[in-house]
Amino acid sequence: MTKVALITGAAQGIGRAIAQRLANDGFSVAVADRNLEAAKQTAFELTTDGKHAVAMYIDVADRDSVYEAVQKTYNAFDGFDVLVNNAGVGPTTPIETITPEQFDQVYHINVAGVIWGIQAALEQFRKKKRINKQIIGKIINATSQAGVVGNPNLLLYSGTKFAVRGITQVAARDLAKEGITVNAFAPGIVKTPMMYDIAHRVGENAGKDDEWGMQTFAKDIALERLSEPEEVAAAVAFLASKDSDYITGQTLIVDGGMQFH
Ligand SMILES: NC(=O)C1=CN([C@@H]2O[C@H](COP(=O)(O)OP(=O)(O)OC[C@H]3O[C@@H](n4cnc5c(N)ncnc54)[C@H](O)[C@@H]3O)[C@@H](O)[C@H]2O)C=CC1
Ligand SMILES: CC(=O)C(C)=O
């Protein structure tokens, strides 16, 4: 039977590449984003290409919205197998500038959004019949190389991405006995709107241009180049596939050799 995956933050960047890759691998995909118009465009391109895709609104910071999107995905494709908790925000936050409002916003999206996703997916997975020790569901969370080693200027963001790795390990331990794997992927410096935005802000503070900002982040990459979103999507496709059935609680670092753990 065709497998079903929901990808959050799939209107652009890494999420969009994941939706495209999983659709190419034969999944029916729900392209979920708070930017519904852009999500519709991604889904439209996939369906025009003969793939199974639907677009839907989601705000991952809102628990009800996450449950609704997961249920909608099940209703659309009559199944639910993989959740990719990809949506995230990445503000630069010099320590003295952080406000309670900004803390709430970033933690609600990057951390609470992952927890609501795990809860909502679990509700669907538990409806499935499990034979022997078969894997019946997979949850894949977006962390970052900045969630492996603290990055300058990214106090709030790095903190949330460390939290995602912790949540991934705990959920993996708690849910293994039910046949659910929970893993994370940790991209490096990927050419997406988020990364260009961060590079712009870093460059601006230093009186330099966006390209200088990107290269500043890129200088510690062993493979000496920035990442394409498709390279991250390839790792997520592995974590979503049967080939990774015996892997849980892990963070797959896809950063061209920035952090070695
Ligand atoms: N671009 C990079 O270099 C890296 C990105 N990452 C992580 O990968 C994930 C994807 O990042 P990018 O594609 O670069 O970001 P992006 O900013 O280009 O795209 C993020 C998408 O998430 C959506 N989104 C944001 N908040 C949302 C919410 N509350 N509910 C639903 N959708 C929401 C946005 O509308 C957007 O479509 C993020 O979790 C990010 O932290 C991790 C390491 C590096
Ligand atoms: C945005 C991000 O995750 C970085 C710089 O690693």
TrEMBL record:
- KW Hydrolase (keyword) present: no
Catalytic residue list:
Y157 (proton acceptor)
Listed binding positions for NAD(+) are 12-14, 33, 59-60, 86, 157, 161, 187-192
GO annotation terms (biological process): acetoin catabolic process; bile acid metabolic process; fatty acid biosynthetic process
What are the GO MF terms of this UniProt record?
Answer: diacetyl reductase ((S)-acetoin forming) (NAD+) activity; quinone binding
In terms of SUPFAM superfamilies, this protein maps to:
NAD(P)-binding Rossmann-fold domains
Q: What Pfam family is a match, any one?
A: adh_short_C2
Into which EC class is this enzyme placed? oxidoreductase
Mind telling me which InterPro entries this protein's record contains? 23BDH (IPR014007), NAD(P)-bd_dom_sf (IPR036291), Sc_DH/Rdtase_CS (IPR020904), SDR_fam (IPR002347)
Q: Which domain of life is it from?
A: Bacteria
The EC designation for this entry is: 1.1.1.304
The question of whether Nucleotidyltransferase is a record keyword is answered with: no
| Function comment | Catalyzes the irreversible reduction of 2,3-butanediol to (S)-acetoin in the presence of NADH.
Tell me what this protein is called: diacetyl reductase [(S)-acetoin forming]
